[in-house]
Amino acid sequence: MSRKLRWGILGCAGIAKRAFIPGVADSQSGTLAAIASRDLDKAKETAAEFGIARAYGSYEELLADPEIDAVYIPLPNHLHKEWTIRAAQAGKHVLCEKPAALNAHEAAEMAEACRAAGVHFAEAFMYRHHPRYRMIKEVIDSGEIGALRGVHGAFTFNGAANKQNVRYRQDWGGGSLYDVGCYPISAARLLIGAEPIAATVHAYFSPEHDNVDMMASGLLEFPGSIALTFDCGMWAAFRNTLEVLGTDGFIEVPSAYIYPKEPGGANFFVTTKAGRREVEVSTVNQYALQADDFARAALAGAAPVASPADAIAGMRALDACLESARTRRRIIL
């Protein structure tokens, strides 16, 4: 690439300040050009904190900036569709936080708007850019753990005390399936290499939190009689794990999606009849790798780690999980 991708950020969300902005700063291909908030003072404060050149008091102003190539959208889930489409119409490439949308239909509309505008669209699943997932897939494909039998994932945390959190607004796309359940679902689809054919999910919808799903446990059926079992929650002790089970062994990922930054924090383990071995993985900045992958696709037309079609398929799986939880039925995809 002959130049760096110039990023604009729509909103001053915690994930932007905590992860995305440092990720772009650590990337080889990106530069932080502008940030917008509906509160200009907040935008100016964030811009000053991170050395971002320009601050805007509206999203529209940022989209009108000709010196912005791409936007990152960390807004609440119900705003993803509107601002992705508006960004595309303004000629900006779009990296949208997960989940891509509120349903697969919205995700398809977003992807089509970006295609029609000739801009790149991607869902921000940062974990997929870490080299360890390629390594895990290589272990599975090598046959070391035998034939694949199942995947189990868990992603839970306890944030229930803060009842003003946007995650607890049903009309804003709140709930644990959207917020953290999407990770084990995404990982299973990636590692199994197929899309689920049925979903059965039980959830706890909390009256104290606008009746969003604060905890969910589910089963996703895949072709070949392989299944993902998972649980996710926002009112439970912290867990962030993944296990891949084969006929002759299994893979354990103790810190599956986010991990400690110290040496060994991203490592995983392979157990077979030969014993248990630890696979060493570098603690790279997966947000920087995400930014570089996006820039290669946007500026050079390279194939991205995950396509817009993958984002739509992921939302289709989430749709089925939510429908199952709400209706207490097994849903065929």
Quick structural gist:
This protein has 333 residues and is an alpha/beta fold.
Task: Write up this protein.
With 333 residues, the chain is of the alpha/beta class. The chain folds into 2 domains: 5-127, NAD(P)-binding Rossmann-like Domain (Rossmann fold, 3-Layer(aba) Sandwich); 131-283 and 315-332, Dihydrodipicolinate Reductase, domain 2 (2-Layer Sandwich), CATH 3.30.360.10. The chain is 35% helix and 29% strand. The chain contains 9 helices and 15 strands. It has helices at 14-26, 40-50, 59-63, 80-89, 104-117, 131-142, 176-192, 286-300, 308-327, and strands spanning 5-10, 30-36, 54-56, 70-73, 93-97, 121-124, 148-158, 198-206, 212-222, 226-233, 235-246, 249-253, 268-272, 275-279, 331-332. The strands form 2 sheets. The protein has a 9-stranded mixed β-sheet with strand order 14-13-12-11-7-10-9-8-15. Strands 3-2-1-4-5-6 form a 6-stranded parallel β-sheet, sandwiched between helices. α1 (14-26) crosses α8, α4 packs parallel to α5 (104-117) and α5 packs antiparallel against α9 (308-327). The longest helix has 20 residues, at 308-327. It starts with a strand and ends with a strand. The mean pLDDT is 97.
For this entry, give a set of tags.
single chain; 333 residues; alpha/beta; Rossmann fold; Dihydrodipicolinate Reductase, domain 2; 2 domains; 9-stranded mixed β-sheet; 6-stranded parallel β-sheet; 9 helices; 15 strands; 29% strand; globular
Question: What's the SSE blueprint?
Answer:
Elements: E1 5-10, H1 14-26, E2 30-36, H2 40-50, E3 54-56, H3 59-63, E4 70-73, H4 80-89, E5 93-97, H5 104-117, E6 121-124, H6 131-142, E7 148-158, H7 176-192, E8 198-206, E9 212-222, E10 226-233, E11 235-246, E12 249-253, E13 268-272, E14 275-279, H8 286-300, H9 308-327, E15 331-332
Helix pairs in contact: 1-8, 4-5, 5-9, 7-9
InterPro entries: Gfo/Idh/MocA-like_OxRdtase_N (IPR000683), Gfo/Idh/MocA_domain (IPR050984), GFO_IDH_MocA-like_dom (IPR055170), NAD(P)-bd_dom_sf (IPR036291)
Domain Gfo/Idh/MocA-like oxidoreductase N-terminal: 5-122
Protein name: Oxidoreductase
